[in-house]
Amino acid sequence: MWVGDARAQGSEDFLLRGDVVEPAAAVVIGAASTAVVGQFAESL
After folding, report:
1. Rounded to whole angstroms, what are the CA distances from 22 to 5, 18, 27, 43?
2. In sequence order, what are the residues at sequence separation of 6 or more whose Cβ sits closer than 8 angstroms to the Cβ of residue 4?
3. What is this structure's pTM?
4. What are the boundaries of each domain within the chain?
């Protein structure tokens, strides 16, 4: 991607919106907590 590329700027603007970042963070946190709970349940 070139620095002056309009598509690159548009995709950066899209990715930096809270509407995209918050659900992505929720998915990551959910996956991590699922793994932790799964390991805890196995150890019981």
Report:
1. 26, 6, 9, 32
2. none
3. 0.49
4. 3-42
